[in-house]
Design goal:
This protein has 299 residues and is α+β, with helices and mostly antiparallel strands. The chain has two domains: 19-98 and 144-286, no CATH class; 103-139, no CATH class. It contains eight helices and eleven strands.
């Protein structure tokens, strides 16, 4: 019997301070392969480099046998200052697609999506709003709503008010893991930076409570609204109540976005709707907002 070989390479690991808050985001990678992951050092700010044996896998299958795809979008803060030759820290946002039509819990309605990436619920296409049916539409698949909400913000140079402008990905290719259509938009003519919300996910593990850097994946804002983020305390319940009390047609679009983030189906991770800052657990314990997130598809 013999024991020998080559000692495993010791890879450098830096523990980064977690961040919460709103930042101006730029997309730098989508579902990278191992080579791109290493070249762009996409772990910076998120954790450690990949182990030599580990591969990046995005495709899987549901318990019902449906194809599933995780889309990892890597972001950086446009305004972060770094020394020449250094990489900015990365933020990762994930979207989860499944090859099945989206229905409500009661199985009485479908979600529909049109060629502008807008969604609407109805029990029949005959009962969809007329304005929605002015464009081509179809039944949406699971996960498409969040993905298209992101796309309409990221591809902000597209004028979706024009009927000739469309945003409709090839679903069949996507569910085979083909994200070339998305990657082709990085640094493309339609790309725009946008405001994203960095958050901290807290969950129980066999090794105790762990905290992870995350990014809210359902709501985004245009960059010019950073001024509002600086001036208005959208974490104040009184401010939110005042916005909520407005008639629906009097709420500004960004106020609806803020309410969505703060609502029942909004951001469940620890967050602040303020300019990006270091995460301080005491801020959330003191306010009674400490959150434990159960294991889900995000990690």
């Amino acid at each position: 019997m013999a024991i020998g070989g080559i000692q495993k390479e010791q890879r450098e690991f830096t523990e980064y301070v977690l961040k919460v808050g709103v930042f101006e985001a730029k997309v730098i990678a989508i579902n990278p392969d191992r080579e791109e992951y290493e070249k762009k050092q996409l772990w910076i700010g998120l954790g450690r480099p990949l182990d030599e044996e580990k591969e990046l896998e995005y495709l899987s299958e549901s318990e019902d046998g449906n194809a599933k795809l995780r889309i990892d979008v890597y972001l950086e803060d446009v305004n972060e200052k770094v020394e020449d030759g250094e990489f900015k820290r990365r933020y990762k946002m994930a979207f989860f697609l499944e090859n099945k039509q989206r229905e409500n819990n009661e199985l009485t309605k479908y979600q529909y999506i049109n060629s502008a990436g807008t969604t609407s619920w109805a029990d029949s296409e005959n009962n969809l709003p007329d304005w929605f049916k002015e464009r081509e539409f179809r039944i949406a698949n699971s996960g498409e709503e969040a993905l298209y909400t992101f796309l309409t913000s990221w591809l902000g140079e597209l004028d979706l008010k024009k009927s000739v402008t469309t945003i409709d990905l090839d679903w069949k290719k996507l569910m085979k893991g083909n994200v070339k259509e998305l990657n082709s938009q990085i640094n493309g003519e339609w790309e725009a930076s946008f405001l994203a919300l960095a958050s901290v996910r807290v969950k129980e593990t066999p090794d105790g409570i762990k905290q992870y850097q995350s990014v809210h994946n359902k709501d985004f804002l245009p960059v010019y609204l950073m001024k509002n983020i600086r001036l208005v305390d959208y974490d104040d319940d009184k401010v939110l109540e005042k916005i909520e009390a407005k008639p629906k047609d009097k709420k500004k679009f960004y106020e609806k976005t803020i309410l969505s983030i703060k609502g029942k189906y909004g951001c469940r991770d620890l967050h602040k709707i303020k300019p990006l800052m270091d995460f301080n657990p005491k801020d959330f314990i003191a306010s009674g907002n400490e959150v434990i997130v159960e294991e889900d598809a995000s990690y």
